[in-house]
Design a protein that fits this description.
Layout: E1 2-7, E2 20-21, E3 24-25, H1 26-43, E4 47-50, H2 56-64, E5 70-77, E6 87-92, H3 96-113, E7 117-123, H4 131-134, E8 140-147, H5 151-159, H6 161-179
Parallel strand pairs: 1-4, 1-5, 5-8, 6-7
Antiparallel strand pairs: 2-3, 6-8
Helix pairs in contact: 1-6, 3-6
Length: 180
């Protein structure tokens, strides 16, 4: 199995760092977690490819030509309401395998870090279709690890990146076991 890992937003935050709050930038958290996920998956014998880019088109084209079996995009959420918190994982409408992958990852992160379970969300093309989910050819998920705008989630995002990565990698390997 091969996993394409996409840490969200632009490398080094230029031109788009993603959500920022409480001294963190989404691009930095996503990259740190993504690199750790890659390391854990490689140690488990899973092939990976990682790309952080400010071009959604480049991300999808590279993923589609990579021979990856699944696509995982890593992000941090944000909201004006500081009380908004928790983990959610998105997948594309109509993708049964994407929904399975999303559920495994969501459950592992929520169980391991005791984050608020915001559930698996469905992206519908033309309605709320997230570009990377609707333009990749393999089962795909977009993981919102937590809210960078929430002080409790921010502590998890700042201090528990390795635990987040381990949980995400376990979700991927749970999925791998279920489809073999």
């Amino acid at each position: 199995m091969k996993v394409f890992i996409n840490p969200g937003h632009a490398p080094n935050g230029n031109p788009d760092p993603g959500a920022c709050g409480n001294g963190l930038r989404e691009c930095d958290v996503a990259l740190a977690v993504g690199k750790a996920v890659e390391s854990y998956l490689n140690a488990a014998g899973v092939e990976t490819e990682l790309l952080q880019s400010d071009s959604l088109y480049e991300i999808c084209e590279t993923a589609n030509s990579s021979d990856a079996d699944i696509f995982v995009s890593i992000h941090c959420n944000a909201a004006e309401a500081e009380a908004a918190n928790g983990t959610e994982t998105w997948t594309c409408a109509g993708s049964n395998r994407g929904s399975m992958l999303a559920s495994y990852i969501q459950n592992q992160i929520v169980d391991a870090l005791d984050t608020t379970d915001r559930g698996v969300k469905i992206a519908t093309p033309g309605v709320n279709g997230l570009y990377v989910l609707t333009n990749t050819d393999m089962p795909a998920v977009l993981v919102e690890l937590g809210f960078i705008s929430n002080s409790d989630d921010e502590k998890i995002l700042a201090n528990n990146q390795d635990a987040l990565a381990r949980a995400l990698a376990r979700g991927v390997t749970d999925y791998e076991c279920s489809v073999q």
